[in-house]
Amino acid sequence: MAVMNGNKPDRTPVFPLLMSFSAARYGASYLEFASNGHVLAESQLKAREMFGIDVITACSDAFRVSADLGGEIIFPQDKPPHLARPLVSCEEDFKRLKRPDVSNPKDLR
What we know:
mainly alpha; 5 helices; globular
């Protein structure tokens, strides 16, 4: 909290990126972790409780933005989600991308 308040911390904050690790400690599959916000949050909080880390994240994978832009996402049971095929493979593909309306949850996939 010292850093967030603009003060010098008493030590270097610990911020490991614990995705599959925290899901496993919570007893969830990676599919549950990546597709259920409650499971993701509880998994991260469990890791923080168990190991005293300073920061947790709401990150589960690198493809959420791709999904919002229309990419087809594959959700394996015990691996991070990934694109079924590249969303953009040529310049024309950029023209087909539709900006999601973040104010409308139905527009987000």
